[in-house]
Amino acid sequence: MNTIFAVSLVFVGCCSNVVFLELLVREFPGCGNIVTFAQFAFIALEGFIFETNFGSKKPAIPLRNYVIMVTMFFTVSVINNYALNFNIAMPLHMIFRSGSLIANMILGIIILKKRYTKSKYISIVFVSLGIFICTIMSAKQVNMGQDVTEEQSFYSFLHWLLGIAMLTFALLMSARMGIFQETLYKQYGKHSKEALFYNHCLPLPGFLLLASDIYNHCVLFSQSAPVEVPVIGKAVPVMWIYLLMNVITQYVCIRGVFILTTECASLTVTLVVTLRKFVSLIISILYFHNPFTTWHWVGTALVFVGTLLYTEVLGSIGTALRREKKKEE
Question: How many other C-beta atoms lie within 10 A of the C-beta of residue 252?
Fold first, then answer.
């Protein structure tokens, strides 16, 4: 029962989160900092109350280790959201972030001296090729349908290229953070809820560096079209409602994944998260009419097939089906 509940939270929370994020970004493409800040503040407040019991509970992992992890986590979160300000379409953003397997494998080989099976290398080729195809197709669409000069087109392309560079850096940084987190958990044991709180609480002072941008978007949000809220009987600027719903759905998504990790095997979690990403991508394409060519679909298929091959989910499903068949016989 808990597993079904957790899967429901993941799909409802994460897919709804993508919708509200895109509603925000379409109106104000540079709103990544205020969105990141709101998400961090909400999760930090919830963790301060329920995880640390208003700061009375001491952390199991030393704070100095959290400072290193938090620096990486803050950088990754801010860059990922800010990249949307550089002509990066939401579908490409989601596909690109699905390439974390590549970064994990590369850094795993370099830092942890890991060796992988042939099937895992093949899966990484699939994912890499898929992301490459989607990126090239998206590059062709940067100025499609716009009446711009050749010079404007060139600068717009450079702007987009900077966004791709930011996503690539965030991907590698995220993989490095994952390796660091893995070594911490081996030394001190798993403390997921505690890590969730400190990863969102400690970076809050860092948002002072982005205060002017956050304030400017607060003003812009307050100037958006008002919408009547039935519960309070007052009109509220629609962008603030979108932001609130984005923060709530982000929390629901994170909680769902956390419950899932405690109830299911890692392969099941990976399968659910992968399917969730695919559903989010479909919603983004159909609901928001984002441009998506046949080559984009080919690239997307390669990314998701490669992910499933890497996690050996397909092999596990095949083994389970063979067992069921033997039982019936």
Answer: 18
